[in-house]
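User: My instructor asked us to take a sequence, write out its structure as tokens, and then describe one feature of it. I'm not sure where to start. Here is the sequence I was given:
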Amino acid sequence: MKSTREFLQKIGLPPGDAYDLPTSARRFPDGGQYRFEVPGIQGPGPMKALLKALNDQGVHIHRVTQTKGIMLLSDEDMQAMVALADDFQVDLVLSIGPRATYDTSASVHTPEGQRMGYRLRGQEQIVRAVEDVKRAVALGCRNFLVYDEGCLWILNEMRKAGEIPADCTFKVSAHCGHGNPCSARLLEIIGADSINPVRDIQLQMLAAMRQAVDIPLDVHTENPASSGGFIRHYEVPEMIRVAAPIYLKTGGSVAKTHSWDTTDADARARAKQVLLVKRMIDAYYPEALCSKFEKGI
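Assistant: Let's start with the prediction itself. The structure tokens for your sequence are:
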């Protein structure tokens, strides 16, 4: 193993998981260590309910993520969500609609086929995914949740070529199943602006991943029942310390599934979860710096 570890270090990667849990010196552009993200907000009604509930408590979040897919939103829905993002000064992240679970293949619905995650089957689905992004761009959105590495690569190539705006950002979903530093480095190389590791990634693994990339890591502080339902609020202070800059993905335990059709009441319940996580940070890592808001990642 020694020679393997030495080679990993030679190419700028950690030699193993970081059991010493070193403090990350990396930061967001404004010097912040962490930001809040609330995922699973599927439309303008729940988005407004979430942001108003947080605003009433004097709490600001940085991202709202829709997870069911752009293709399931009307133009009016997207325009309303973009307007809310501007009004409340948050980043709106829309997820690409075509994915394995919406395709005509039955494989993804089988125990073995689930391993493909939400990845795309066939070049036509890539074309449709790009069209999803172009449609959302035309309506004012610039931030996208990506479920397929090939789709990420082509979107990055289009961004570099000026086919889509240069200020578009791409975050990689946990449904891609990445959880090691080598995968994180690869995703950064092909265009990821932030990465969601697997939901149950342990602190020493997270710390090692941080050593491999500069981009933010998006870490679930809790999860829907369909992906384990576990709540990691007490680990959040250490997540921030070892993985900064980090997006704290909070509120998922309110939902039964990743694509749960969030109600206004669900959205307010997610707002409460943000407050509970904030309490943990205030109690156990009060010196941690919450990032100010800056559009984009």
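For the description part of your assignment, you could build on this observation: The radius of gyration is 18 Å. Try explaining in your own words what that tells you about the chain.
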